[in-house]
Write a structure and sequence with these properties.
- It contains four helices and no strands.
- By secondary structure, the protein is mostly helical.
- The longest helix has 20 residues, at 18-37.
C-alpha cells in the first residue's frame, strides 16, 4: 500500500522536520480511515491516536483538527458517544 511506503520513507529520515511529521499525520489518518472502513477498529484507533500525539508535539492545529474529526467519526460509527 502506498501509504505504508510513505510512512516507511518518513521513518528513514534521521531528523524529520515539521513538514515530514505533518505528512506522517496525514498518512496515519488515512490509514485509520481505511482500517475503520475495513472493520479493523483496533488499528484504526491506534493510527488516529499516534497521529494525534504527533500533531500535539508539532503544535499543528490543522492536523489536530483533522485527527479529532476522524476520531469523532470513529466513535460515532461505534456508537461510543461518551
Amino acid at each position: 500500500m502506498i501509504i505504508n511506503d510513505v510512512l516507511q520513507h518518513i521513518e528513514k529520515i534521521k531528523n524529520p522536520e515539521q513538514y515530514h511529521q505533518k505528512n506522517k499525520t496525514y498518512a496515519l489518518n488515512y490509514l485509520g480511515i481505511i482500517d475503520n472502513k475495513q472493520g479493523d477498529s483496533e488499528n484504526a484507533l491506534t493510527h488516529y491516536l499516534e497521529a494525534l500525539d504527533i500533531c500535539d508535539a508539532i503544535q499543528d492545529s490543522a492536523t489536530i483538527w483533522l485527527t479529532l474529526l476522524n476520531l469523532g467519526m470513529f466513535y460515532r460509527r461505534h456508537k461510543d458517544y461518551i
